[in-house]
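Q: I'm writing up a methods section and want to include an example of the input and output format. Could you take the sequence below and give the corresponding predicted structure tokens, formatted cleanly so I can copy it straight into the document?
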Amino acid sequence: MAEQPFLGRRGFLLGGAAVGAGALLAGCTGNTPANSESNAPVANAGNNAQPGKPITIGFSAPAADHGWIAAITKNAKAQAQKFSEVKFNATEGTNDVNQQISQVETLINAKVNVLVILPFDGKALTAVGQQAMDAGIPVINLDRVFDTPLAYRTWIGGDNYRMGVNAGNYIAAELKKKNVANPVIGEVAGIDSLPLTQERSKGFKDALGRAGFKVGPRVSAQFTSESGEQQTANLLQGAPKLDALWNHDDDQGIGVNAAIDTAGRKEFIMVGGAGSKNMMNLIKADSSPIKATVLYSPSMASTAVALARLLGQGKGIGDLAEHDIPAEITTYSAVVTKENVDQYLDVGFDS
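A: Here is the clean output for your methods example:
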């Protein structure tokens, strides 16, 4: 299994290990004992969990036509509801770039205190992100990054390259345990034109290469169940024998599993991607080829809203020495297996 981060199982989940234990909400009520002789400064003293000044957080994301995106919006709303002083102004999700730009401009004109934006297309929405920043409205850029840091105050998102690395490391370790020589390792990627898919595939290839293995049959899907089923059926038809398979996305994994069931193939192990509840339940049951999934958790939306609240209230993260919110936060791609799945079910999302 891939090495787990010392910060703990939840990456950047609130109430879990988020850039320091309880950092985002609990604050720092005293990092050193009262009788300590340390001269180190204690930054951001005070309890950040206590209600602060009233603020309005604007939120914009694509249409919830994909389990992961739906969970992004759901998590953001749920997090905002935890703060009595926060008003959450969410636009209707859209995959129309021009409509999303117009919606963000409406939020800017409404003079929200902070904006959380997951752009349908980061490049296309860069200008409106910078417009908000120029108007004095801090922007939390969620996941799909804008073209310039001038368009956001803080970016938070997943680590696509490490997703591939950790998937490759897990598969390599499992195959070596079984003393499999010259394994056939397949890959069902997402949309190949997207940088995130390219980064995931590169990480996967690099990790397998370090183990002396290589990627075998590879297909790309469209992050949908239908495309996952079709492309996996094609891969299985062309590969009469497989030792392992990595599927980039658990939403398209519904179709991937359907194709595997239809073909009656059980001779290989499979690893998923993102961390859906559906896949976690299959991992826990241990009755199918899927043995693990690599997180790219939509819980990052919860953290984005918590960070927006702190920015709007002029607060920092209590357990950090710095007084200000970091400019970038990358979540960790933990590997969820039968051994630790119960610890991660709370962040699983419905595909």
